[in-house]
Design goal:
By secondary structure, the chain is of the alpha/beta class. The chain is built from 15 helices and ten strands. The structure holds iron/sulfur cluster. Iron/sulfur cluster binds next to loops.
């Protein structure tokens, strides 16, 4: 493994619109590249411009904390009451707790900084190194809130050893989530991506959800795999051919060169349907529930997130939904929803039912229809 020290030009990424998967506007990559080297990682694809051989080399942003301090001091939201959702550590093109973090502790220093600003934190990782920071995470959780999410392609240790060679096996990741739950931290499972014809079988999906339910995890977020033509697909297919040659032929039927690497909608519908049935059986929340975020969002962002969650949950059941479009229209508003409470129907995509839902969200921070869908 090669590491190189680089000076980044900026760290904090701010999204124009709240991300309703992670409940965040702010995110960052403290490292570039990832030696966890997951075979399906889309960080390998050309669009991310990660230098060198992906999985074998990582860039360490040695000026990250200094830059973060500057960026935070210029952003008034960090010094006022924080209403921008969670600061997201993870995802993107490098796990914040990959092995090099042991040496540089940049993620820990970032947590210390965000703790001073009382920011809620959401961590998504595949590494159990996160337990090193338990003391700090508990402190942040007491003051604001912390979510620790772990991602899995399944709970199968053998498949994981092939497709996620640089991370602890799923059994150890589960143990960590279990121990964090005992410490009263909020924890979730990202069952994402399930690997077509390898870990997408109903029995694999059910095992994961049953375990999440047994551990009382706060949510399970599910998703299929994308496979972009180019380096990502080439590498993935090479490994698949070696270990699962019989399923190779099936890939041509579902990955047909979509620009974003998406599989066919029929394939995604079939795995989503399995997830929908199994998650209902075990009563797990299929999105981050509102009790974990309603205190950290502006009223418009709260409405956007809940409407987008409803949109997802209806589509998961194979239904059509107007709520995604309504959420998009709200994201374009430049005034708080409460200031136009009796003119909501002037917003594109907001009809009578959506108006009622928004009123309920403004009054209670959530709505009953949403809460029912989340578990149903
Ligand atoms: S842990 Fe995440 S970022 Fe790292 S290689 Fe795996 S999928 Fe990619």
């Amino acid at each position: 493994m090669k590491e190189s020290k680089v000076k980044a030009k900026s760290i904090l990424r701010k999204r124009k619109k709240i991300d309703s998967w992670f409940i965040s506007r702010y995110g960052m990559n403290l490292y570039r590249g990832c030696t966890h080297n997951c075979v399906y990682c889309d960080g390998r694809s050309e669009g991310y411009y990660v230098k060198g051989k992906f999985g074998k080399r990582v860039e360490v942003k040695v000026n990250a904390i200094e830059l973060l301090k500057k960026e935070i001091s210029k952003d008034k939201n960090f010094n006022n009451h924080f209403k921008q959702g969670f600061i997201m550590l993870g995802g993107g093109v490098g796990d914040s707790y990959q092995p090099v973090e042991k040496k540089y502790e940049i993620t820990r220093k970032a947590l210390e900084l965000f703790n001073k600003h009382n920011c809620p934190i959401h961590i998504l990782t595949k590494s159990t190194l996160v337990k090193r920071d338990l003391d700090l995470l508990k402190e942040i959780n007491d003051k604001s809130k912390v979510i620790v999410s772990m991602s899995f392609s399944s709970l199968d240790d053998e498949a994981s050893s092939i497709f996620e060679p640089g991370v602890p096996p799923p059994s150890e990741r589960l143990e960590l989530l279990s121990s964090f739950k005992k410490e009263d931290l909020n924890c979730g499972m990202f069952l994402l991506p399930v690997i077509p014809f390898v870990t997408d079988k109903p029995v694999f999906i059910e095992n994961s959800i049953r375990k999440a339910s047994e551990l009382n995890l706060d949510f399970v977020i599910f998703g299929g795999m994308t496979l972009k033509d180019g380096k990502q697909k080439k590498y993935f297919m090479k490994v698949l051919k070696k270990y699962y040659p019989k399923v190779l032929v099936n890939y041509d039927n579902i990955y047909k060169g979509d620009k974003w690497g998406n599989a066919t909608s029929e394939y995604y519908d079939s795995i989503n349907n399995t997830f929908s049935l199994v998650s209902r059986k075990y009563g797990v929340d299929k999105r981050i529930p509102s009790k974990l975020f309603k205190d950290f969002l502006s009223e418009n962002d709260l409405a956007i997130v809940i409407l987008e969650h409803i949109d997802y949950l209806l589509k998961l059941k194979g239904k059509t939904s107007p709520y995604g479009f309504a959420a998009y229209s709200i994201s374009k508003l430049d005034k708080p929803l409460s200031s136009i409470k009796y003119n909501l129907r002037n917003i594109k995509g907001v009809g009578k039912v959506t108006e009622q839902i928004i009123w309920e969200i403004l009054d209670n921070g959530t709505c009953k229809y949403y809460e029912r869908l989340l578990k149903g």
